[in-house]
């Protein structure tokens, strides 16, 4: 695989991987350090949640639009511009520590986070369009991004406690991102691809009823994970945790996700157990939430709940992509890169929507208005609704498969059986 790549391509892959790692770390490192700084300036939990959720909202809106018009802007220039914007925004976010007034701190946080999200959307959308055949670049970048989100809170906590305070993570990572724009100019080639308008496209996919069940699963997974972002550090405050220890608690959840993600992939490849894994993931999410916010608050219960939540989220999220692909292929979509792109865009947009709702509506405003216990119970109820919807879908699917009508005319029998098969595929 690597022998077929030129030295220039290898350097470009390493450069893009480091850029992707730094960009995801700088996005996720604020978990253990930002809420405390914001509360010291008088910000409410709703405002803190909005700062966390705005990033995903901008990604949800801008990423599909950037993907649609990337052939106009050019993948190379979109990638370089994204790196520059994201790096400068990251450095600017580190200067927030010098703003002591809560009102200006809040609005400056929102503005910089908005700009940073635009830069990230440009960089990620463009970088995933770059090809290094036969190297599996898309899967590699997704792995790097997952690792970055996993270690980001831990790196943020360590740098905060030991190497210069709030601004240090953003100055270091932002500078690395900015430096990456120089080799990117010389190493990245423009992707030349024939643009064609798919007559079906992503909007055609949204007309498939069963696809909405997968969207529901992804949104639910994102909500269950992201609602913790603005509240976990405050929830652990009674244990006297440092920012580093708080980062370790974030790492416990994300790390268990990464460790078990490969296992879920192997199970899917061998037994094609998409529905069972989603049922398990949602059920395990309920268990983790009960341990986190319903039973008596104890450190050991919180640790166990975060580990289970990471495992459960992988079981809920990972089968969704393959399930979506199977459904759309049955509805006439080609097994092509464009179809994969549409499904990937749909899944990413769904996750971004949940990533906005979790910290903003539930973790921020919801916990401030109704309390943590009520919000946790509401997410439990949403998971129960998903389980009911999944079981109803499987029951209807089995009923359609089992129903067969026998009539005298052979031709009529064939028509009825074909109708039953089509009704199953439209679920």
From TrEMBL:
Q: Where is the signal peptide?
A: none
UniProt xrefs under Pfam families: MFS_1
Q: Which PROSITE patterns match?
A: PROKAR_LIPOPROTEIN (PS51257)
Localization (cell): Membrane
Provide the Gene Ontology terms for cellular component: membrane
Q: What residue intervals traverse the membrane?
A: 12-34, 46-66, 78-99, 105-130, 137-160, 166-188, 209-228, 248-268, 275-293, 299-318, 339-358, 370-394
Q: State if Transmembrane is listed as a keyword.
A: yes
Lipid bilayer topology? Multi-pass membrane protein
* UniProt keywords, alphabetically: Membrane, Neurotransmitter transport, Transmembrane, Transmembrane helix, Transport
Cytoplasm: present as a keyword of the record?
A: no
Please give the PANTHER family that the UniProt record associates with this protein.
GH10249P, MFS-TYPE TRANSPORTER SLC18B1
Family designation: Belongs to the major facilitator superfamily. Vesicular transporter family.
Its protein name is: Major facilitator superfamily (MFS) profile domain-containing protein
- Organism of origin: Heterodera schachtii
